[in-house]
Amino acid sequence: MLRWIKSYLHNRRARVAVDGLKGKKVLLRHRVPQGGMLSPTLFLVFINDLIETLPNGIHAALYADDLVMWCTEEHATTATCRMQLAIDNLVAWAEDWNVSINREKSSTTLFILSPKQKAGTIKQDGTSLKTEEEVTYLGVTYDKKQTWRPHIQKAEGKTRRKISIMRKLAGTTWGANENILKRVYEGAVRPHLEYGSPAWSTAAKSQLQGLDKVQNQALRVITGAMSSIHTHQDHVGDCWAAAAQRQKRRQDHGAG
Predict the structure, then answer these.
(1) Please, which pLDDT band fits residue 167 given cuts at 50, 70 and 90?
(2) Predicted TM-score (pTM) of this structure
(3) What is the C-alpha to C-alpha distance for residues 8 and 29, in angstroms, rounded to an integer?
(4) How many of the other CB atoms lie within 10 Å of CB of 62?
(5) d(CA 132, CA 243)
(6) What is residue 149's predicted lDDT score, i.e. its pLDDT?
(7) pLDDT recorded at residue 152
(8) Smallest Cα–Cα separation from 214: which of 161, 142, 170?
(9) Is 121 helix (H, G, I), strand (E, B) or coil?
(10) Which pLDDT value is given to residue 228?
(11) How far is CA 120 from the centre of its chain?
């Protein structure tokens, strides 16, 4: 198996071809072939021991090459020192394996309710990492006070744009029927409303009301109801009932 993998990676060369003109072949000394069937698996094997190098008290989540690290401490200064040690270990691992860390995409965020404690400076190779009030990881936006307002506002914006498309598909004398509009809602609108809900289901009711409003707009488009009519189960039938059930499961999961 090792010899087979070695033959797959060893002595690979690449060149650029433009309008029939071919450049000189260059030996690829690092990385795996882009688009290769084995490349994702080999990369995961390669990067898998990264988390093991992190110090005690540091938690981490790794999705392909997207890494997030965090720790929980009573004082911000303690958290800063612990995270700095984690960054130092990460840099050392990257140097050992000839991996570059994108500093422009790296940032720190202090999640805290008290305004008295301030975020400390964390450096990578002597350069301070930028500090942000909110950060997005795998499509979910986390704000420093965990109100989830930025994430919900982004979800509302994406949903409203999809609803505009639904309105163009639905005409009074022509256009898509209710079944087609319901499929568009389920495939293009509802995912934006519910993505990452296990994380942000603890948001205040006042924050979640914005999502309820845009969902009602979508359901009115499906049923042809006027904006002055309050949507409820009698108007939207199974579509609303299913949404309500999912929302309850989301809230129960957040409470648990």
Answers:
(1) confident
(2) 0.75
(3) 13
(4) 14
(5) 34
(6) 93
(7) 92
(8) 161
(9) coil
(10) 47
(11) 25
- For the chain, how many residues are written? 256
In a 3-state reduction of DSSP, which class is residue 216? helix
Which residue has tokens 């008295």?
A: 116
Within its chain, how far is the Cα of 6 from the centroid? Answer: 34
Q: Give yes or no for residue 238 having a pLDDT over 80.
A: no
CA angle at 224 for the pair 223 and 228, rounded to the nearest 5°:
110
Reduced to 3 states (helix: H, G, I; strand: E, B; else coil), residue 255 is helix
Q: Name the amino acid, one letter, at 203.
A: A
Average the pLDDT over 154-169 and give the result: 90
Counting Cα atoms < 13 Å in the Cβ hemisphere of 194 gives 18
Q: Give residue 44's identity as a one-letter amino acid code.
A: L
What share of the chain in percent tops pLDDT 90?
Answer: 31
Tokens standing for residue 141: 């936006």
Cα–Cα distances (Å) from 133 to 102, 107, 147, 169, in that order, read: 20, 10, 12, 39
Phi, psi (rounded to 5 degrees) for 64? 55, -120
The residue among 111, 99, 112, 113 whose CA lies nearest residue 67 is 99
3-class DSSP assignment, residue 131: strand
